[in-house]
Amino acid sequence: MTTLNEAQIADLALSAHPMATLVVDLDGAVLYSNAAARNAFGLTQDGAGAAGSIEGWGLRRMPLPELLRAAAISSNWIPAIFYRGDEAVHARARGMRAKGGGAPLVLITSVADATTQFQLHAKQIRELNMQVALYQKKSMELEESVAVSKVLERELVHRVKNNLAVVSALLNQQARSSGDEIVTDALKSAASRIKSIAVVHDVLDRNQQTEVVNVADLVVQLAAGIRTTLCPPRIALVTETQMAVVHVDVALPLALLVNELVTSAITHAFVGRPRGRILVTSAVEGTEVEIRVADDGVGHPSGAKGAPREPRLVAALVDQIGGSIDRVTGDGTEWVLRFPSDPQRAYSSPM
Amino acid sequence: MAEPVADAQLSLDRDVFFRRLLRDLSGTLEGVVGIEAAEGYISTVGGQVGLWINQSYREALGKPKLDAEAVAAVCVDLKKRIGGDFHLISADEDKMVFGNNRCPFGEMVLGRTSLCMMTSNVFGRISADNLGYARVELDQTIAKGDPGCRVVVHLRPNDEAPPDAREYYQYPHTPSDEDV
């Protein structure tokens, strides 16, 4: 480890000090200068360490040699502003005894100048203001861009809704003219599913939204669509809803789920019954949304082992929204669907 | 009939006017640029006045250079001529000690310590130019409220002196100075 004495430490500190410090003789020849001084006075250090002269610098109303001699004769600091063209160095100067008793030397150090500091701060404030203005301009451009993007998204939602409605109508029309019951049922089922997706876009479109859907609106609209296309008059399809907002990525599988459960009930629950009732409710329970589809019918078909069989697609759709589904049997069948209520939640693989 | 203005009783003459001017000028300097920078400006003036006084005494006494005894006498005399009351307390090869009971600036010096740089620089300049070196200590000053001044002029350099000691070095004469 290198050990430094006091003089070496002082030399190290001075050489890196931000205040310009230099020692000159009475002719202005530089005998010592730190980096700040060489920078301030524009001095170039040669290979031997000498840094030229400050001859090119002067005071406004006093020749440089006169100042150097006035400063050299005592240790009192004399304020001095050195000029060279447009450059200025605010400094002070004092004399130093020369080793060996020769002519005294002059120690010059820069001082903080209020005007320079003010000009520096004013420049920094101007630059900051320019940056703020630039950021504001960019922010406005981004806001305009987002606004345009929103309009385009809403337009897209509107067109998708219309296109899906057209596809659904075509399938229904095809179903009516197929002449084959199996084909008709398949086409109606497909039309109903497409219609349920169209309903999501319709709710978005009506509310001028692109990302979130009100579950209450969704359930009411779905029921209305099913009522007019699949539900016979003898079956009453009723809704009771509470407002709950979900992300569109949840709304799409949710619409298909409700469609599956209701159409399953219409298909299976009232076989041999003159009339029936299906109640679809939505509610918020803590951090979850709860959808119930209940009928007062005869029950649903069982699976191979006698367990109740879920309508097709249901399990996959429930997984997709991170929810759970339970079936309650009694006077009819009730499906209870629960899933997290988080309008920000989006899914990586939406339907 | 109002009293004629010329007969008004007030303390105003040329001497009072200039002392008042110096008091306000030094006060303005201290207030605007700070005590340290004000002392710097007044030191510059004091150094020039010291050169002038030293040259004047040399010419008047017909001596190219003054010895220590003459330097002490000049310091006392010059203060007497401008209204001060300095006296030599002691003197040896190493230092001269002066006392003072009255400041040339009178009561105008109270609170204006930067004006003491005139004494420091004039004594220091005369001593350094004739004896080679001077270090001036203002132990007591009327300006800062002491009853009198006590000024010590050291004549030998001391490497142990504090960095802010007020030292005076011999004026570096150039050939052009001899022409003046």
From TrEMBL, chain A:
<keyword id="KW-0547">Nucleotide-binding</keyword>
<keyword id="KW-0597">Phosphoprotein</keyword>
<keyword id="KW-0418">Kinase</keyword>
<dbReference type="GO" id="GO:0004673">
    <property type="term" value="F:protein histidine kinase activity"/>
</dbReference>
<dbReference type="Pfam" id="PF07568">
    <property type="entry name" value="HisKA_2"/>
</dbReference>
<feature type="domain" description="Signal transduction histidine kinase HWE region">
    <location>
        <begin position="155"/>
        <end position="241"/>
    </location>
</feature>
<dbReference type="InterPro" id="IPR036890">
    <property type="entry name" value="HATPase_C_sf"/>
</dbReference>
<protein>
    <recommendedName>
        <fullName>histidine kinase</fullName>
        <ecNumber>2.7.13.3</ecNumber>
    </recommendedName>
</protein>
<keyword id="KW-0067">ATP-binding</keyword>
<keyword id="KW-0808">Transferase</keyword>
<dbReference type="InterPro" id="IPR011495">
    <property type="entry name" value="Sig_transdc_His_kin_sub2_dim/P"/>
</dbReference>
<dbReference type="GO" id="GO:0005524">
    <property type="term" value="F:ATP binding"/>
</dbReference>
<dbReference type="InterPro" id="IPR011102">
    <property type="entry name" value="Sig_transdc_His_kinase_HWE"/>
</dbReference>
From TrEMBL, chain B:
<dbReference type="InterPro" id="IPR041359">
    <property type="entry name" value="MetOD1"/>
</dbReference>
<feature type="region of interest" description="Disordered">
    <location>
        <begin position="156"/>
        <end position="180"/>
    </location>
</feature>
<feature type="domain" description="Metanogen output">
    <location>
        <begin position="24"/>
        <end position="153"/>
    </location>
</feature>
<protein>
    <recommendedName>
        <fullName>Metanogen output domain-containing protein</fullName>
    </recommendedName>
</protein>
<feature type="compositionally biased region" description="Basic and acidic residues">
    <location>
        <begin position="156"/>
        <end position="167"/>
    </location>
</feature>
<dbReference type="Pfam" id="PF18546">
    <property type="entry name" value="MetOD1"/>
</dbReference>
